[in-house]
Amino acid sequence: MASRLKRSKAATDRSLRDERPVADRLREIRRITDEGPSADPEYLLRVLSDAEPRLRQAAASGLGTLREERARSALEASLDDPAENVRSAVAQALGMIGRPESREPLERAMADPEPSVRSMAAWALGAVGNDASVPVLLRHRDDPEVTVRLWVTSALGRLRSDAAFATLVELLKDPSDRVRREAVLSLGRYADRGVPDLVRPFLSDPARRVRIGAAIVLGRCRDRPSVGDLMLGLLSDDAWVKPSILIALGRIGDVQAAPDVARLIDHPSAWMRVCAIRGLAELQPPNAAEPIRRHLNDPAWSVRGAAAEMLGRVGDASDLAALRERLEDPHPWPRRGAIYALAQLDLSEAAPRIREELRHPTPEVRLAAIWALGRLRDDGAREALVSLLRQLSPTGGASEMFAQGDGDGAVRLLSDAADRLYDTTIQAIGRLRPQEGGDLLLVRALTESRASLPEEMVDRPARLPPIEIAPGTNPPTLGQLFEAALPLGPDEDEIGC
């Protein structure tokens, strides 16, 4: 502790003094963070050395939110901060930045005396994603603090190794239902190892959060042997569990479940209606479109949005007028759903109206419009997409929460659409097929954008709308999106030589 105090005093002597009240300086940190990737992080870096712990904590959180790689070394040094809350925020920030160089400092932080710091260090090691951290994490599988075991379990699921898998199986016996649920969900990342047989018994776990986790994993694994138990759960389980069962039955795709799913499409709970609509659309029984169409005018925006989006799976060209009507919905979620459906149904006559949504203030709507115009190969969107690309950052933006209602019927949707705008725009421009000697506007925009990216960013998985990535498959890398979008150079033949 003495070394931490010594460092704090020295750091404070180095920092520039700011005599404003703490509340004003916290607002300044929030303002910089809210600016997103275009923000200058210099002020946040200075505040990491401030005497006030609340400011150091806020600065660390801001640098993590901005994914500011230039802050990595300063943040790693701050893992020795004398304040627990600061060390915890620093560990989380390093995980959000996700640089491989942070692995060893975060592993050392797993020995921190405070459980909040160990918890965030475990989460961050999972985010950094190097399975060399597994031995360090395994030493904390029996940590006395539930929160530490929870995040260790989560990290083991993300790191995927034989030792991690064996430990996750043991963690299914943990006395904490939070840890058991996380073990179930983490095992779902190992779908090639007989996971459904391990998870199926947890549909009867005494804790509903564990039963929810089991339904989620069995749905992702498309486990047909669990259909009978899942259908029984629709009749007898807690209302909190049934939405996950509806989604699982839809993903498994056994049409015998369709009547039971359809019966819940008019349930009083908005979230239950949302999940029944999605489950029924995935099951695709005959006449699935009719009950879904009824909910295009549902009083709940979440239900209208689900109905509009799912018509892209089960609707047809006759739905054009109704989906266009949802493009005028006062809430962004039904607009988003209608845009996806119009593109999935290849209703290109809606493209001019979809172009207008590129200017919508909500990232979810803009993301849907970008993806739809690419899928529809709308020539009229070329200039608008190029202009948008030049405004976007590959590092993304802040998440957004959509909330509706309270209690059992509450809907909470966390959107990361701002993180997906840049990559989806690259994909959309590529789908407009710029050819050698052809559209110089598209080629120049793509070439300039590609040249501005560091190589490590080019190799990351592309952030595309969930509708674009089939369950159980991996997205292309950002570099592969550029390769698909750009025409061959004059010295390249068809095999890239």
Report a brief summary of the structure:
The protein is mainly α and about 500 residues long.
Would you write up a description of this structure?
The protein has 497 residues and is an all-alpha fold. Among the domains are: 1-97, no CATH class; 384-404 and 412-464 and 476-497, no CATH class. Helix content is 59%, strand content 2%. The protein has 29 helices and two strands. The protein has a two-stranded antiparallel sheet. A hairpin with a 6-residue loop joins strand 1 (400-404) and strand 2. The longest helix is centred in the last third of the chain and has 15 residues, at 417-431. The chain starts with a helix and ends in a 12-residue tail after the last helix. The model is unreliable at 1-15 and 490-497 (pLDDT under 50).
Q: How are the SSEs ordered, and which strands pair?
A:
Elements: H1 2-14, H2 22-35, H3 42-47, H4 53-65, H5 72-77, H6 84-97, H7 103-109, H8 115-128, H9 134-138, H10 146-159, H11 162-171, H12 177-187, H13 195-199, H14 208-220, H15 227-236, H16 242-252, H17 258-262, H18 270-283, H19 289-293, H20 301-314, H21 320-326, H22 332-344, H23 351-356, H24 363-375, H25 382-391, E1 400-404, E2 411-415, H26 417-431, H27 440-451, H28 455-458, H29 478-485
Antiparallel strand pairs: 1-2
Helix pairs in contact: 2-4, 4-6, 6-8, 7-8, 8-10, 10-11, 10-12, 11-12, 12-14, 14-16, 15-16, 16-18, 18-20, 20-22, 21-22, 22-24, 24-26, 25-26, 25-27, 26-29
